[in-house]
Design brief:
- By secondary structure, this protein is mainly alpha-helical.
- Helix content is about 85%, strand content about 0%.
- It has helices at about 1-35, 40-65, 75-100, 110-130, 140-165, 170-205.
- Helix 4 runs antiparallel to helix 5 (about 140-165).
């Protein structure tokens, strides 16, 4: 029986690694789009494809969770990790979509910097998730994600404050506030993932 259960358990780690790689690809794509805004529509289309890939992986994780009795760590943590990773991807895709729908001509400096923070976070999370099965040496990863989240908080506060200091139209203020908030949500959710990883490690060591 054990020979059958072990591959089932390891399948979760494989799926989470696949999602983390897909998420990081989306985050790097968003950061690249913000730095080189020559084809936002094309980037938004690519982002939507990555979101579909992520949705399929999450569906596979949840389906497996509903069918298997033995899991490598708490079922609640598996579901929370999958759903929060998916929320990060949704926010990244939504940001790319808004840049097109709102007809943004040039990304604001703060949005460029927020996207860079997200890209750094997802790269760290990918490494942590790839090593989640070992559950060792991951503390430096969640600490770094927390540090980046603090950077993101400062960026968000400064970005919103600056909206009301210039001569933007009300429409532009609403647009950028929406974009900044969506990017901030991705940054916050990345910290939530780091918290989940920390909890998994502490419970299972």
């Amino acid at each position: 029986m054990k020979l059958n259960l072990v591959p089932q358990e390891r399948e979760y780690f494989r799926l989470f690694s696949e999602f983390a790689a897909n998420l990081d690809q989306a985050a790097q794509l968003l950061a690249a789009m913000m730095n080189d805004f020559h084809d936002p529509k094309g980037t938004a289309r690519q982002m939507l494809e990555l979101e579909h890939v992520g949705d399929k992986i999450v569906h596979d994780i949840v389906r497996r969770l509903n069918k298997t009795f033995i899991t490598p760590f708490d079922r609640e943590d598996i579901y929370d990790l999958a759903s929060t990773l998916d929320e990060i991807l949704d926010s990244i895709e939504a940001t790319a979509d808004m840049m097109v729908l709102y007809r943004i001509e040039t990304p604001a400096r703060q949005a460029v910097e927020q996207a860079a923070v997200i890209a750094k976070q997802t790269a760290v999370l990918k490494t942590a998730i790839d090593n989640l099965e070992k559950r060792k040496g991951l503390d430096e990863h969640w600490i770094e994600v927390h540090r980046l989240e603090n950077d993101g908080d400062r960026l968000y506060r400064d970005a919103v404050a600056e909206l009301f200091e210039g001569h933007m139209t009300c429409t532009d203020i609403i647009k950028w506030k929406d974009i900044y908030s969506t990017l901030e949500q991705a940054i916050d959710d990345s910290e939530h993932v780091a918290n989940i990883i920390e909890s998994i490690v502490l419970k299972n060591t």
